[in-house]
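Ticket #4471: complex job returned nothing on first submit. Input attached below:
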Amino acid sequence: MTFRKYLVLAGVAVFSAAGDSLLARGMKDLGGMSLHNLSSLILAILDPWVASGILLLLAFFASYMSALSWADLTYVLPASSLGYVLVAVAARFGFHEAISPARWMGIALITAGVGFVAAGPSLTPARKLPGDVISQPEAQS
Amino acid sequence: MKEAYTWAAIALIVIASTTGDILLSHAMKQVGDVGELWKRHGLLNVIVRVLATPTFFLGLIAMGVAFYSLLFGLSWGDLSLVVPASASLTFVANAFAARLFLHERVGRRRMLAALLVAGGVALMAI
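Support reply: We reran it on our side without changes. The output follows.
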């Protein structure tokens, strides 16, 4: 794992958390939707909050794809959950919001989970299954 | 009715985003290390390689379904239910699906991590 790779994983966490927050803020403005007016669901992307949320989620997607090109899915996913912790920490120290004991517990569990995965290898060799065709190196003539 | 819509949206988010994650992960493993490819062949080459991978598009469609299910769910249910419920269930579903379809070695360490993260995400909502 190089510094660049840790930076990409940090991007996955930060962009997904910020994008989700903006999206949620926008959808609350728009109110309840139903299957009967699907057009409003499509027009939702014109809302400035939703639109900026989508932009950040695109940045998330780029870093997520990059991470998946060199790490296992079960390695990248827990790393992305650090975003929830970042949001809580920003709320506590940036906006002086109170954090309930249950949320602190949640932060501890997520951090422990990420630590467990990060301590192991980022890419595991694929298991050979009985049905798999094992490619044989071709004989040089 | 509102509750049924909310849980239907949550179920749809979990199924669609797990399918999407598996397909996208499979596609990116076929493409190879994006950073290395960028250094050697340039960004354009990386983009062309990704776009030429069929499973990438299938994954994108699944993610699109998950995204609109999330918008739908958020408009009906509380943010504090929809996001943590779908996120924590997706972590667990992905751990099983990655083992089954991607043949990743999800040993005790990674399964425990998935459960810890899933529990933690659920607790964050309280």
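Chain A touches chain B through 52 residues (CB under 8 Å). Closing as resolved unless it happens again.
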